[in-house]
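User: Hello, can you help with two protein structures?

Assistant: Certainly.
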Amino acid sequence: MSEIDLSTMSRRQLANYMVTEYIAAELAILTGAQSYSIAGKSLTRANLNDITKMRQYWERRVAAFNGRGGRVVKTVHIRD
């Protein structure tokens, strides 16, 4: 498998890549693995909660790139 060069990715590509990597890490932990590798770094004694939080962070970044992130402001008109 070839090494991924994160420095050549756009921010959108990086966000999508990281979501994929964190999902893979979650699945590995859920199936019994206690070590995983993300972006060339190997980690042991995996913490599912930390990985889930980071996946959610990157999913929010992806949503923002796709125009579905951030706050939504709605105007309410009250009529008598």
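That covers the first. Now for the second protein you mentioned:
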Amino acid sequence: MKEMMVENNVLILTINDCPGMRVVRVIGPVYGTSVRSRNIVGNLLGGVRAVFGGKQGGYLKMIAQTRDDALEQLAEHARSLGANAVLGMRFDSGEFDAGQGQAMNEVTAYGTAVVVEVL
């Protein structure tokens, strides 16, 4: 069976079906979005590291937290509509300038909310 993720009692799958289960109701599109930024010290340290190259640990941590928040929001949205699963989940991400040199990281998780039951 494909690897599954359960977030707040909502099964989240990147595939379009759920082996061993059947879809009994399609609810529709759902999404969760999270936006984060690093503080001024983190941005300065990240800028210095970028000059010399190497792994950007602070940014990696921020992106992981942003992604996890987006998944949590996705699960909450699905659950609020009566779904117990999200199929075809994907991520979209971007970065934008919030002014004064402050970069913001945005991640959206989206998919199709459904109700599934065990066969």
